[in-house]
């Protein structure tokens, strides 16, 4: 005779384990959708410009709108998950992301596309933070690292296939399918989240620093609009100066507010940790160049060198493949030489490889470009890994949640600033050299790459502030190695 009590006890365990497995796949898929959409659009920008009657070199707002919105929404995601429950917020995130993707594909003017990208960014911003939170709260502690490592894999795959997939869809169908592919995935994701995902509201969810959030959000918006105003928006220099001063005033106001607030959005105590302080500032400035390159490279290949969208996407594969291959190398270098030496040298090399694209010419053999892309991708990936692990390695459990959220915000903000700065530089140089022919635009691209390289290389002085003996890669850092 079977033991009914034992059997009924086993069934709930199996059901719970199945929900954990499905939750893991949901979070991984959400992360894949988010990272895919940060790169898949870039190769389709010239086709979008032709369809919407815009200039290909004035389409940076499509990329900026998505990444800036994600930066603005990241601090809110954790609070919403606590107050409303992870399942509800994750469901809403997938739904909003899917609807935003549908609206993007239906856009008939640039302003409609930008507005739809904002909506898409609202959903995308909550996919990874809330998903990671769901794993941390539902999985046993001994399974954290394996679960987070599994979720990090799509962070490598998304950027790897994004440019090529975007180019292929644009060539064989139209740019609209760059967004439409998210719809069936989103529908399945919503159904699976509603049925299987764990995560109820916390009974004692903390408050939210609305005043601090407002000041940071206004600072990020003012800074982005000021920089973009020099290129795409055509703002007067006086207005740009006022916006920059306003952004600085908001940041100063937040610092004063956080110093006296009992529960600030981001505690200033985080900046008492030397590795976090240097890592965060280094990430913010070094990533400006790294954020500009995925936007600039497909444009260079299509506008000035005559590549098709698919071939332009294929050219990004050597950079992505070299980046994946170099991740373990940098860990060994850090162990042997320390963060300070590795980041000082590597930051300068990354800046030089960016500037080397100023030497690109139409008559060069394709293998030269492939080698150039691979070298850039390898050193750029090493930069990401070193900066990520440095920033998070000494946070500890007390500051892990707040520090990780601030770090994610800085990542998305620097990506937005990178595209904004690239657009401003490209707009300035095209107005100076002209954009009537591919040769004129090529000169503008050359000047832009040189400036982006100098900006990146000059951020090496930030890493010079590290102690020479700073070594070690923590579990937090390892979990973020794939999150470029």
Could you explain the architecture of this structure?
It is a single chain. The chain is an all-alpha fold and 484 residues long. It folds into three domains: 1-208, Up-down Bundle (Growth Hormone, Chain: A), CATH 1.20.1250; 209-264; 269-484, Growth Hormone, Chain: A, CATH 1.20.1250.20. 78% of the residues lie in helices and 0% in strands. The protein has 18 helices and no strands. It has helices at 4-39, 45-52, 60-84, 86-105, 110-138, 144-172, 177-180, 182-196, 210-229, 237-260, 274-304, 309-314, 317-355, 366-392, 400-433, 438-458, 460-463, 475-479. Helix 3 runs antiparallel to helix 4 and helix 4 (86-105) packs antiparallel against helix 5 (110-138). This is MFS transporter. It comes from Trinickia symbiotica. It holds the Pfam family MFS_1.
Quickly describe the structure:
With 484 residues, this protein is mostly helical. The protein has 18 helices and no strands.
What attributes does this structure have?
484 residues, Growth Hormone, Chain: A, 3 domains, 18 helices
Q: Which regions contain 5 or more consecutive residues with pLDDT less than 50?
A: 4-11, 474-483
**CATH class term of the largest domain:** Mainly Alpha
Output the structural class. mainly alpha
Q: Mean pLDDT across all residues, rounded?
A: 83
Classify the fold: give the CATH topology of the largest domain. Answer: Growth Hormone, Chain: A
Domain Major facilitator superfamily (MFS) profile: 23-471
GO molecular function, one term: transmembrane transporter activity
Transmembrane segments: 20-41, 61-82, 89-111, 147-169, 175-198, 210-231, 237-257, 307-325, 337-360, 366-386, 406-430, 442-464
GO cellular component, one term: plasma membrane
């Amino acid at each position: 005779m079977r033991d009914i009590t034992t059997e009924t006890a086993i069934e709930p365990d199996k059901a719970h384990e199945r929900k954990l497995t499905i939750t893991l796949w949901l979070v991984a898929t959400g992360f894949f959708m988010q990272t895919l959409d940060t790169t898949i659009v870039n190769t389709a920008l010239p086709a979008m410009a032709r369809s919407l009657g815009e200039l290909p070199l004035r389409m940076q707002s499509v990329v900026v709108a998505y990444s800036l919105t994600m930066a603005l929404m990241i601090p809110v995601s954790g609070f919403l998950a606590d107050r409303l429950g992870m399942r509800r917020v994750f469901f809403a995130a997938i739904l909003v992301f899917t609807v935003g993707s549908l609206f993007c594909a239906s856009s008939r003017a640039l302003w409609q596309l930008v507005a739809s990208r904002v909506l898409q960014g609202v959903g995308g911003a909550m996919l990874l933070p809330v998903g990671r939170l769901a794993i941390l709260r539902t999985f046993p502690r001994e399974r954290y690292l394996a679960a987070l490592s599994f979720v990090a894999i799509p962070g490598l795959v998304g950027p790897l296939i994004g440019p090529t997939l975007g180019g292929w869809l644009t060539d064989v169908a139209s740019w609209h399918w760059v967004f439409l592919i998210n719809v069936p995935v989103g529908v399945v994701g919503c159904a699976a989240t509603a049925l299987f995902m764990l995560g109820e509201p916390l009974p004692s969810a903390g408050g939210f620093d609305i005043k601090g959030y407002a000041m940071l959000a206004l600072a990020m918006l003012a800074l982005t609009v000021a920089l973009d105003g020099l290129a795409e928006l055509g703002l007067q220099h006086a207005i740009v100066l006022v916006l920059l001063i306003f952004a600085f005033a908001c940041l100063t106001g937040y610092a004063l507010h956080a110093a006296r607030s009992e529960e600030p959005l981001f505690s200033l105590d985080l900046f008492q940790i030397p590795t976090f302080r240097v890592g965060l500032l280094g990430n913010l400035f070094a990533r400006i160049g790294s954020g500009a390159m995925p936007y600039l490279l497909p444009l260079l290949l299509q506008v000035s060198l005559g590549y098709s969208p698919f071939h332009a996407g294929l050219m990004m594969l050597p950079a992505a493949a070299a980046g994946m291959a170099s991740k373990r190398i940098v860990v060994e270098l850090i162990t042997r030489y320390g963060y300070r030496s590795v980041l000082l040298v590597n930051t300068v090399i990354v800046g030089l490889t960016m500037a080397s694209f100023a030497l690109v010419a139409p008559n060069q053999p394709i293998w030269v470009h492939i080698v150039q892309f691979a070298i850039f991708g390898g050193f750029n990936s090493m930069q990401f890994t070193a900066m990520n692990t440095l920033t998070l390695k000494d946070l500890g459990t007390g500051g892990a949640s707040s520090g990780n959220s601030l770090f994610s915000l800085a990542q998305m903000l620097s990506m937005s600033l990178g595209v904004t700065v690239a657009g401003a530089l490209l707009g300035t140089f095209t107005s100076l050299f002209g954009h009537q022919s591919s040769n004129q635009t090529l000169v503008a691209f050359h000047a832009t790459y040189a400036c982006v390289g100098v900006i990146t290389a000059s951020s090496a002085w930030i890493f010079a502030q590290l102690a020479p003996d700073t070594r070690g890669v923590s579990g937090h850092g390892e979990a973020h190695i794939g999150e470029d």
